[in-house]
Structures are given as C-alpha cells and as structure tokens.
Amino acid sequence: MAEEELPDVLILDVGGTHGVLENLAALLKKCFSLITMKEFLGNKEEMRKKIQSVFVFECRPNIGRELLGSLPNLKVIGTSGVGVDHLDLKMISSFGVKMINTPHTVADPTADIGMALMLASARRLVEDSVLNFPGPSYFFDIPHFYYDTDDLSKSIFGM
C-alpha cells in the first residue's frame, strides 16, 4: 500500500530572520510538503502546478498578483496571527483562493499582558522598583533616588 502524497505548501523559508519558526515548520511537515520560496523561484515551472497552499508567517511571503497568477492550482492561503490587514482579500478572492487565519489564537495572552500593564501602571510598579532597589538606575533617562534604609516596612514588594 503506497503512502499518500502530502499537499505542497509554499513558505518563505524555515528559520532565519523571516522564516517560519523551526517548531512550527515541524508541525506543518506533518500535513504538508514544504516548498520554500527559494526552491519555488529556482524551479518555477515544475513547482507552480504542485503548490496548492501558501502559509504566510509574519507577513511573508508577500502575496501579490504576480505570485497568485503564477500558481494555477492554489486553493488556500493561511496566515498566522490575528489580523489579515497585510493581505488584499478582494484581490485574493478574485483568483478564487480562500483565506484562513487564526483570529482567537492570542486573545488570552493579550488580555493577560493588558491586565499586567494596567496593574503595573496603577500601582506604579516601575517607579517603585526604581525607588526601592539600591543602585544607580534611570527611568526614561531621568536619574531617580532610592531609599537608603534597612527598614523594609516602608516599602511594598509584590502585591
């Protein structure tokens, strides 16, 4: 019994500055055969008919008319992250290509960070840490002084 061939997905690269993260690439390899943009451009005629999907990671590869026109069997473009502002959805749909994204992926971490920033701001934690911990410190290039005391009852550490 022959093993079923995986569909091909176009990505910018694996690793490096702008490529798909290594652990994410490992997940993609479970369901897709990865084709990097370098491989695609090096053998465009053979690769163009094989590619059925494109995975956009950190707004790359750039999805334009030229790329969409060169991929006749393209069915879907997937993008990581929340927004799709970096994509021209009308142009993509004019090529008959579907779009997918992950709208709720970072909702909880974003809420956590937002709450942490509000609490830190309300409690003035950054300024307190500058005032309470000995040593030279600067907050927005303004020197701050610290309390030189052995009595920690006048300081609040944590919440």
TrEMBL record:
<dbReference type="GO" id="GO:0051287">
    <property type="term" value="F:NAD binding"/>
</dbReference>
<protein>
    <submittedName>
        <fullName>HPPR reductase</fullName>
    </submittedName>
</protein>
<dbReference type="Pfam" id="PF00389">
    <property type="entry name" value="2-Hacid_dh"/>
</dbReference>
<dbReference type="InterPro" id="IPR050223">
    <property type="entry name" value="D-isomer_2-hydroxyacid_DH"/>
</dbReference>
<dbReference type="GO" id="GO:0030267">
    <property type="term" value="F:glyoxylate reductase (NADPH) activity"/>
</dbReference>
<dbReference type="GO" id="GO:0016618">
    <property type="term" value="F:hydroxypyruvate reductase [NAD(P)H] activity"/>
</dbReference>
<feature type="domain" description="D-isomer specific 2-hydroxyacid dehydrogenase catalytic">
    <location>
        <begin position="34"/>
        <end position="114"/>
    </location>
</feature>
<keyword id="KW-0560">Oxidoreductase</keyword>
<dbReference type="GO" id="GO:0005829">
    <property type="term" value="C:cytosol"/>
</dbReference>
<dbReference type="InterPro" id="IPR006139">
    <property type="entry name" value="D-isomer_2_OHA_DH_cat_dom"/>
</dbReference>
